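Run log // design_07
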């Protein structure tokens, strides 16, 4: 997973899977735009980072059955290093 915070535009882009193009997008969650390829989410744009990022990413995670904790970690990492791409490798939960 790759994330990048564009400070001037105040947006975070989280790339779930690199693709050459999108088939469409989903914009039902306020401040979240999800890029779709082959009927799967591949890119998440968080528009405006001052309000409820975690909540919005949890909603996207729930809607698309994605790991919301990983999305939130990617967003926080991107915010901590503006205008630089951050790459995260998130493992599955350990069995308890």
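design_07 sequence
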């Amino acid at each position: 997973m790759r994330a990048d915070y564009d400070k001037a535009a105040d947006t975070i882009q989280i790339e779930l899977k690199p693709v050459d193009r999108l088939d469409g997008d989903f914009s039902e969650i306020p401040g979240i735009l999800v890029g779709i390829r082959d009927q799967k989410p591949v890119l998440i744009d968080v528009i405006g980072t001052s309000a409820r990022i975690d909540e919005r990413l949890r909603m996207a995670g729930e809607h698309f059955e994605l790991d919301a904790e990983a999305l939130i970690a990617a967003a926080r990492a991107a915010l901590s290093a503006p205008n630089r791409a951050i790459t995260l490798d998130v493992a599955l939960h350990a069995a308890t």
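The chain has a mean pLDDT of 93.
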